[in-house]
Amino acid sequence: MNKLKRAAAFLSALVMLAAVTPELPVNILNESYSITASAETTVTSETSAEDMAKLLLGGGSVTSATKQGDVSTFEDDSEFWGEGFDAGIILTSGNNGLTTTDPDLNKIVTCNPGGHTSIFEFEMVATGSLLNFDYAFASREFDQSDTFNDAFGLFVAEADEQGNYGEYENIAKIPDTELDVTINNLREGDYSKHAENVALIGEGQEYYQANYYRAYESTVKFGETLDVNGISNVFTAQKAVTQGRKVKIKFVISDVGDASVDSAVAIMADSLSFNKRYSIV
After folding, report:
1. In this structure, are residues 244 and 111 in contact, taking their beta carbons and an 8 Å threshold?
2. Mind listing the pLDDT tens digit for each residue in 143-155?
């Protein structure tokens, strides 16, 4: 009889414990917001253009720098842009951008008037023979038609012995191709490709990793104002240069087709170097 009483008391205690134990969330790590829920993201537009250039250089020197439109520095611990990509410069085609277009970017893709353009440009002396940058492109327009083809250009010009510059060359290319960085090219030329990629998102996954970008079913947020549904892989841009000569570097991003939603490009801090980490040119 005592054994029955002890068993009944034990079962009663278990019932009481279950009643006060909080219900744990199911698969919370698979929710799109969970990656950034506890992350710190700081975006600052007040940094001077010269200090922005130095951020990319890791403290190196520049001879001049300018910025136009929506250009900011950022710090972020959510790995939104990619592993280890926790600081840098961000340019967007948001409402603070210019309403004029850039002639060099227009050589890549026609940027319809009325869109927004942002430009960051600086000059420096090459301290080595191979210029390197790491960057990633993101947009809210990956699920739109091919009319909306926002674009990014990373233009480099080298001075001759007399200090005169030639034309800019765009060195932002999709890896292993000669394709410029635009939404259509990242979707491999077919705007319906994004829907196909989204359909491949598996259970418990936040996104589908396509060849050149990550496809999201719904938008993900960076900072307070940027919402995107696709983020490119982290790409490296390179150009052979002459050590000791001046080089001009210009980053440009622009709306194409409309100005309703935005695209952005992030340039990784400390990634500008003239060291031969490896060569893709």
Report:
1. no
2. 999 989 999 999 9
